[in-house]
Amino acid sequence: MSFNVIFFGPPAAGKGTQAKIIETKYGLKQLSTGDMLRAQIAEGTTLGKQAKEIMDAGKLVSDEIVIGMIADNMEKNPQAKGFIFDGFPRTNTQAQALDTMLKERGEKINLVLELQVDDEALLERIKKRAIEEGRSDDTVDAMKVRLEQYRDYSAVVLPYYQAQEAVITIDGMRPVEEVTMQVEAILADDIAA
Ligand code: AMP
Fold it and tell me: Which residue segment(s) compose the domain that 68 sits in?
């Protein structure tokens, strides 16, 4: 039995942080489209060069590119007991493509964990992360666009999963360890079910 979970929420909500903490514990593989794109940029590929400009502006990279990367990485990890999707899907088209890919494997999205953090706290986190990690899209200007893109294209994906009764909302304003404890409690229940 496989188990597939999506970490959903605005930029800097803590999706990547939580995904990395739980991935080894449950034998799940984290698939972060943001990390994949940053790897392409670091390698200096054509795709990376095209993506960098879009990412630095805070806009969304094309559905075709991110869906292709997810498909490749699912194939490359046949040993995984399931996947943690982090930063994907971010549009309705991506959500539908993901469903199709999972259906072909006889799988589905078992759980969507929505991390809720208010905008002010997100901006503060971004300023801190800019100093710590030096990400070129962690600027106040890019962040404003990223939040707009989240509201315009990504937040609308949530009702799609709510209709499947797959969504659990978590208060992402709390300290990392407290959020992890809640995530683990939910996973323990759901994976066992
Ligand atoms: P993240 O690390 O998830 O915050 O992603 C950083 C940037 O990569 C985003 O602001 C987008 O420009 C791009 N990106 C990451 N994932 C996606 C996605 N699923 N769809 C479109 N663009 C994405």
Answer: 5-192
* Ligand 1: lining residues by beta carbon, under 6 Å: 11, 33-34, 37, 54-55, 58-61, 66, 87-88, 90, 94, 137, 146
Q: How far is it, in rounded angstroms, from Cα 167 to Cα 112? A: 5
pLDDT at residue 49, rounded to an integer: 96
Residue of 125, 127, 135, 174 with catalytic role:
135
Domain count along the chain: 1
Task: Note if the pTM is more than 0.85.
Answer: yes
Active site residue 129: yes
Residue 143: which CATH number? Answer: 3.40.50.300
> In terms of Cα–Cα distance, which of 153, 27, 15 is closest to 83?
27
Query: Tens digit of pLDDT for each residue in 85-103?
Result: 999 999 999 999 999 999 9
Strand partners, 156: none
